[in-house]
Amino acid sequence: MANLKVHYSSQSVDWATPEWLYEELDREFSFNFDPCPLYGLESGVNGLEVDWGSSTYCNPPYGRGIGSWTEKAIKEAGGARQLYSLSPAAQIQRGGIETL
Length: 100
Prior knowledge:
Blueprint: H1 19-29, H2 40-43, E1 55-58, H3 66-76, E2 82-85, H4 89-95
Parallel strand pairs: 1-2
């Protein structure tokens, strides 16, 4: 069995989306924005401070700051925007976002 000791810890807040999964989702939803790419600091964009795209993919940094990303996702999900986010289920439920 894999070592799951790191899960639900603050050992790392960065968890990359598997490339095959992102590509599959992108084919279906045609993403035009990622507010927190894995190496986001290098891009110079703070996804919490800018408007998100009309079809956004978000895999936020996990850890104590995830609540800020959940709040921003709720704000950005209105209107004609599509938002797809990978977040822990417990956080999504607290944020009031409908899950499948």
